[in-house]
Amino acid sequence: MDPGKFLLFAVGGLSLAAYLFIVTAGLSLVFGALRVINMAHGSLYMIAAFVTVVVANQIGVAAGFFVGLLVAILAAGAVGAVIEVIVLRRVYNQEHLVQLLGTYAVALIISGLVRLIWGANYRTMPEPSLFSGTISLFGYSYARYNLFMIAAALVIGAAVYLMLYRTGLGRNIRAAVADSQLLSTTGVNVKLLFTTVFVIGAWLAGLGGVIVAPSQAVGSTMDSDILVLAFAISVIGGLGSIVGSLVGSLIVGEVISFGLANPATNAFALAFVFLIMVAVLTVRPWGLFGTPETQ
Amino acid sequence: MIRLSKALALVAAAVLFVAACGGNGTGSATTTFKGTKKVGISLPLTGQSNLYGHAKSQALRLAAEDINAKGGVNGYKIEMDVIDDGTTVPKAVDNVNQLILQDQVIAMMGSVTSGQCAAQTPIVKQNKIVYIDSTCNSYQLTLEPDLLNPYWVSIVPNTYMEGTSAGAEAAKLGAKKIFIVSPNYLFGTSETNAFVAALTKKNPNVTFNDKSTWYVPFPTNPRWDSTINAIQAFQPDLVYSNIFSQDQVNFVKQALAVDPNFFTKYQMVTLSSIDDFNALGPQYPQGMHVYMRAPFFQLSNSKLDAWVSEYKTKYNEYPSDWALMDTDALNLWAQAANKAGTFDSDKVMSQILGKSFSSLRGYNFTVRTQDHQANVGETIGTTTDSAGKYPFVVLKDSSNLKGDDIMMSTTLMQEMLDGKCEKGGDPKTANFALCPSWK
Which of A207, B1, B143, B216 could cross-link to B416 by cystine, CB 3.0-4.6 Å? Predict the structure, then answer.
């Protein structure tokens, strides 16, 4: 493979990884802090994508994307807060299966409501002009929007990392992960902390929906489209680890991109992802960057 | 536990609310019926093909209302029994069992994907239920010996008709180096094989991307970077695709982001539909060579125009190809059952096979006795701006290919039915390109 083609497929893999990371970062944060596998994460991402498309198509893409960004993140955060208060607070002490079923029920309800409100038709919007256009390298074209997605993924990853390891909120979140009861004895309102974490997770899901909206069809199935790969990434990287999500996304993105590029491996490109997942589960069940559950 | 029960009760109440909001009443208040008979359909209201399921369910409910307004079928009111299969084969199988055994439907309309239809046909056959197929279209469904079903009727142009028409179009364009992208299941392989067979018959020197890279998983993830990059790396004269719905929308959108002239640089022959046009609106590229099953704007006639107006008034959207074909499907069954004077499947089938039916498509079609395939046409053309007439592109330089001109010849069909087109006598390898008369 010549360097031009190698770069083409490497950047293709990075684009896919960026998309996957943007969507899974919030999922990982929520599991890391609250130990809840949030099956409704994709629903929040879908709501934000719909809001962005509707706003952008209503007031024009130039301003619409940024107004949509604000409205969509607020909407995702509000819905997230409602889910946390009404459903999650009642299942924190239950086993994971109950939590899965509870959040899955929420996902089904939101999916139905989305179809009622926005219909079954797919909606699309153009890319905002700031990020549209292409650049050419070694004879191949690259979408600026894909490069923007890669940059956005890096910024989101860095912001979440800094929030967790350089702020008081992050210190409280990490303390809650270690022992939430002990943390409550220090005067920290753990209930409010959990709601805050879930809302941040919802914002991240919303941000993912906003960023993805101009690059694909926005429809009522986009919540579940991402689920299988998102969980594969979480297992490989370690559920709960932001660094793990980033590395897991990179592995999955590049394996798929180069796997599909090669005729000899094309038919098995997706299978490789799950082979890696099985290998990680066998050797290190808590993932490459995760930590074993103590309870 | 009590708290959990409360949460579940709340969720159940919400689901019931959603279900109630989605309900749909039908029927005429003035006609007196002997009773109600159900016609079933399992279709994707969720999952990859939900867009098509949405159009089909709307159209069938409207068609049932129209049939009931004219007195129903054999004096009975017709009610559509619609169940979601999530675009999965196992659920489609569960659904057909439920529709037949529990809901006791008297006939069925066809599902969406060929994988689902192939899985449903043995159950339909065993229970002697007439099944009018208007979307899933692999020719194997009516010609592969182990799938043959005396109660199956296809009123959609099948993969032979579509694939060979697309192959002829690609040959006309003079392309020598072709990149193929197709969904990896029965429909994709069937239609792609027909395309390749027709194209290489006309132009034996044409070359393709490696065969192992033709197919993408179905359903696939929403990012098409790998395929787009592979096309750039291969530098073909022409891209042939039969990816559809959400996959086509995502592929086109992401390819245009990589290069606004992508589809000028790499001209494309592709299956498409009004749903795909509608989803992309003005972003759908002009100059694409598309083949379509039933675009209303291309088949305009007084009966169709009135129906389009009725559909648009009721649902506030233009009807897709699927909506149009499903309306024809239910009307065909209703006409046949009325003529038979009974719902007995054998008697209804005797009123379908070899008989001519009027359609919204502006012509009458006949269901061929031997393979139960109707001689319905295909529309082929190049996308262009609709000049404000519709919120999506339309076609120029188009033609409505006649069913009789694109159907499999009776000789070829008979060789298929006689098992002369298989590798090692395995019906699952049946392929018309292996038939003696094709060679």
Answer: B143
Q: Are residues B81 and B115 in the same domain?
A: yes
* DSSP SS3 for B83: strand
| pLDDT of the residue at A294 | 61
Q: Which of residues 16-35 of A touch B (CB under 8 A)?
A: 16, 19
Q: Which member of B18, B227, B233 has the closest CB to residue A5?
A: B233
Q: How many CB atoms lie within 10 A of CB B119?
A: 17
Q: Is the preceding peptide bond at B436 cis, omega within 30 degrees of 0? A: no
Query: Cβ separation of A127 and B257 shorter than 8 Å?
Result: yes
Task: Report pLDDT for A174.
Answer: 87
Half-sphere exposure of B236 (CA within 13 A, CB side): 29
Q: In sequence order, what are the residues at sequence separation of 6 or more whose Cβ sits closer than 8 angstroms to the Cβ of residue A25?
A: A156, A157, A160, A204, A208, A242, A245
pLDDT on residue A293: 67
Q: What residues of chain A, 247 to 266, have a C-beta less than 8 Å from chain B? A: 256-257, 260-261, 263-264, 266
3-state helix, strand, coil in chain A (%, to 5): 75, 5, 20
Boundaries of domain holding B402 = 160-292+379-407
Which residues of chain B fall below pLDDT 50?
A: 1-28
Domain contains B420: no
The enclosing domain of B94 has a CATH number of 3.40.50.2300
Which residue in A has a C-alpha nearest to residue B19's C-alpha?
A112
**Cα angle, residue B169 at apex, residues B166 and B174 outer, rounded to 5°:** 130
Residue A204 lies in a domain: yes
ipTM over 0.85: no
Instruction: Say how many C-beta atoms besides its own lie within 10 A of residue A9's C-beta.
Output: 24
Please state, in angstroms and rounded to a whole number, the distance separating the CA atoms of residues B213 and A131.
31
The whole-number pLDDT of residue A228 equals 81
